[in-house]
Amino acid sequence: MQLKVKHHNPWKTRVFILLGALALGVGGWSLFDYGRYQAGYDSHESDLEQLRLVALVDELQDDIELLREQKAQLERAAQIERQAYNELDTNLKVLQGEILELKEELAFYRGIVSPKEASRGLHLQRFSLESNGLRSYRYTVVLTQVLKNDGLARGRVKLFIEGQQGNEPKTLDLAALSENSVKELDYRFKYFQNLEGDLVLPKGFKPMRATAQILPGGRQEDIIEKTIDWPTEENQKDVE
């Protein structure tokens, strides 16, 4: 038995396999492209449509960027407008406060020159209460005298608070409401005098009205009296 030796070249085999695979790929793609053509697909038209869509996307992105810029500009304009409005509102409130103060000062000096009670000489120009803390109130009593009166006005001032303690009516004087237990206030002036102090309400006491009594020269028969409703959170303005 004779043995024959055959030469084996692996490179040829690899080349044949590669060429076969390439031929299959080209053939498959040709069949795929032919199928698309048969179905009405136009690759050139598809490329043009793709280019059109890309251009449309770019255009839409430009529009979005423009809209974003416009939105930012509108937001800045609205912010500036709000700031301007707030500044105007603040200035208006300041001016209104100044006008109110000027009106009060004008009424005050008018009261000195020609008070409603000029025949009596002494005038209770203002009596007010304003909250300054829990159960604590600031009272203000302003007394004036006609300018033509050159003499000194002297006398006493009494304050009373009417309300309820529990279900019972109760009246408290200045001594029961102040820390220094002062029962009356003394005044002595030529043209006007401002009396101020703090009142502290006892727990459970519900105030309703406040009364200021002016006793010129300490005489009960010449008393000047004014009663005001107790100020609430909604209305704590001076009662003239």
Structure description:
The chain is of the alpha+beta class and 240 residues long. The protein has 2 domains: 44-113; 118-229, Immunoglobulin-like (Sandwich), CATH 2.60.40.2420. The protein has 3 helices and 8 strands. It has helices at 10-38, 43-113, 174-177; strands spanning 122-133, 136-145, 153-165, 168-173, 185-189, 192-200, 205-216, 224-229. The strands form 2 sheets. Strands 3, 4, 5, 7 and 8 form a 5-stranded antiparallel β-sheet that branches. The protein has a 3-stranded antiparallel β-sheet with strand order 1-2-6. It is rod-shaped. The protein starts with 9 loop residues before the first helix and ends in an 11-residue tail after the last strand. Residues 234-240 have low confidence and may be disordered.
